């Protein structure tokens, strides 16, 4: 199922809307982390994430053209630790083994009512102590792209959607300039504080 308002602009423009290096630094990826990225798009994050880990990266997208572009970037960089998977994860799940991953990326993909489905899948495939990293467009400032403001989730909505999934907020939330916010939820940890951005 294509999430509404998920169309992609031209690649260079799209990449200009993020401080990619700062976001990857915020992820604090362990050297041997196994990662899933749901909705890889052009591979804007796939490539730098794969460069940070010696573990396997599973990059999913619903659009074959996006996978082809992202695959080309990874191949040109000489990386061999990325598996690209054309699949509708919302409808079909990831098909990855339960409790097998250290990190799941849900970037700019949770602006729909059934967001709990993707959070539930993230919780299923994460190891205890694994992290789901959520990034989305801010709705408190004007942004040059992004879905309708009233569909953009906030941190409170994310915590509500994750209720009962054994995903806890541990204090890692922040504004990710220029146009996004991010938060990280850990599987199987003690509940943390409410996010404050």
What does this protein structure show overall?
- This protein has 197 residues and is α/β, with parallel strands linked by helices.
- It has a single domain (11-187), classed as Rossmann fold (3-Layer(aba) Sandwich), CATH 3.40.50.
- The chain is 28% helix and 26% strand.
- It is built from 7 helices and 7 strands, in the order ααβαβαβαβαβαββ.
- It has a 7-stranded mixed sheet, with helices on both faces.
- β2, α4 and β3 (82-86) form a beta-alpha-beta unit.
- The chain is globular.
- The protein starts with 10 loop residues before the first helix and ends in a 10-residue tail after the last strand.
CATH H-tier superfamily: Vaccinia Virus protein VP39
Order of helices and strands: HHEHEHEHEHEHEE
Query: What class, by secondary structure content?
Result: alpha/beta
Q: Averaged pLDDT, please?
A: 93
Percent of residues in β-strands: 25-35%
Number of domains: 1
Radius of gyration over C-alpha positions, nearest whole angstrom: 15 Å
Give the overall shape: globular
Number of H/I helices = 7
Indicate the percent of residues in helices.
25-40%
List keywords for this structure.
197 residues; 7 helices; single chain; 28% helix; alpha/beta; Rossmann fold; globular; 26% strand; 7-stranded mixed β-sheet
């Amino acid at each position: 199922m294509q999430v509404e308002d998920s169309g992609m602009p031209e690649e260079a423009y799209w990449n200009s809307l993020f401080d990619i290096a700062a976001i990857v630094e915020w992820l604090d990826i362990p050297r041997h982390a196994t990662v899933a990225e749901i909705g890889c798009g052009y591979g804007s994050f796939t490539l730098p994430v794969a460069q940070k880990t010696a573990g396997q990266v599973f990059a999913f997208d619903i659009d074959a053209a996006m996978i082809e572009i992202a695959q080309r970037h990874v191949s040109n960089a000489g990386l061999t630790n990325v598996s690209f998977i054309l699949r509708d994860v919302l409808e079909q799940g990831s098909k990855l083994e339960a409790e097998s991953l250290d990190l799941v990326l849900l970037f700019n993909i949770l602006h729909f009512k059934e967001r709990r489905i993707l959070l539930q899948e993230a919780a299923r495939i994460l190891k205890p102590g694994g992290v789901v990293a959520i990034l989305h467009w801010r709705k408190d400032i004007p942004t040059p792209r992004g879905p309708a403001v009233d569909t953009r989730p906030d941190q409170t909505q994310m915590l509500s959607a994750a209720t009962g999934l054994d995903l806890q907020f541990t204090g890692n939330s922040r504004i990710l300039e220029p146009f996004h916010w991010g938060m990280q939820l850990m599987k199987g940890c003690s509940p943390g504080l409410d996010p404050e951005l």
